[in-house]
Q: What sequence folds into this?
């Protein structure tokens, strides 16, 4: 039985967003969507962009801030409706 040699070079697959011009790591582009703009991405065999990690952290922080603000607005909208 023939067993192929193990691959010693890392396979680089990224997701490219043409809107943001960034190559994202696979774990950063959930369901193939760009974490910054939410647009679609294309798979590429290229290294991730130098600023991908930094931009991913900023995009996650912005999304969390938006979610907290929406929850705050929903809470007070419901509270005002009860008072009326």
A:
């Amino acid at each position: 039985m023939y067993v192929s040699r193990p691959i010693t070079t890392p396979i680089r697959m990224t997701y490219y967003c043409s809107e943001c011009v960034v190559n994202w790591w696979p774990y950063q582009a959930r369901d193939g969507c760009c974490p910054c703009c939410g647009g679609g991405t294309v798979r590429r065999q290229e290294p991730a962009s130098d600023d991908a990690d930094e931009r991913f952290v900023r995009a996650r922080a912005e999304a969390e801030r938006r979610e907290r603000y929406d929850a705050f607005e929903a809470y007070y909208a419901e509270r005002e409706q009860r008072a009326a």
